[in-house]
Write a structure and sequence with these properties.
Blueprint: E1 10-18, H1 32-48, E2 59-70, E3 79-87, E4 93-102, E5 109-121, E6 126-127, H2 132-139
Antiparallel strand pairs: 1-3, 2-5, 3-4, 4-5, 5-6
Family: Belongs to the 4-hydroxybenzoyl-CoA thioesterase family.
Organism: Comamonas odontotermitis
Enzyme class: hydrolase
């Protein structure tokens, strides 16, 4: 079963990752919660690719919704690539999309998912406009 993601997304980053022994659960495959960690790591790596930190002092990204579709089991050992895309930039938010593949198996998607990210003023606990540098990254 292949679950399709929006066609209007734009690829922005590939993040190589290694499955660690501790990523597995008692059934011998990667635990479902770890897939979210893989997606988070790709997102932070992308954000840090042009900046030292993924935030501006007291403002930064906050995930408000996320999901994952588990399509195939992943076991240790494995080398992965998390392919990240973005879409739908708005005034304060944008969408992120992920496809997880094994290195050496291009096009075979083991999981896919997404997250809605909003830009927040941490002191005020309120969404604010995306900063210009983030808008430029989203617009490509």
């Amino acid at each position: 079963m292949k679950i399709l993601l929006p066609d209007h997304k734009r690829w922005v980053h590939d993040s190589p990752m290694e499955v660690r022994w501790g990523d597995m659960d008692c059934l011998g495959h990667v635990n479902n919660t770890v897939y979210f960690r893989y997606m988070e790591s790709a997102r932070v790596e992308w954000l840090r690719s042009t900046r030292e930190t993924p935030h501006d002092g007291n403002q930064g990204p906050v995930v408000v919704n996320c999901f994952c579709n588990y399509l195939r089991q992943i076991e240790y050992p494995a080398q992965l690539v998390v392919k990240m895309s973005v879409s739908d930039p708005a005034r304060t938010a944008f969408e992120t999309w992920y496809e997880i593949e094994k290195v050496g198996e291009p096009g075979v998607v083991y999981a896919n998912g997404g997250a809605t990210v909003i830009w927040v003023d941490f002191d005020r606990q309120k969404a604010v406009d995306l900063p210009a540098w983030m808008r430029a990254m989203l617009d490509g």
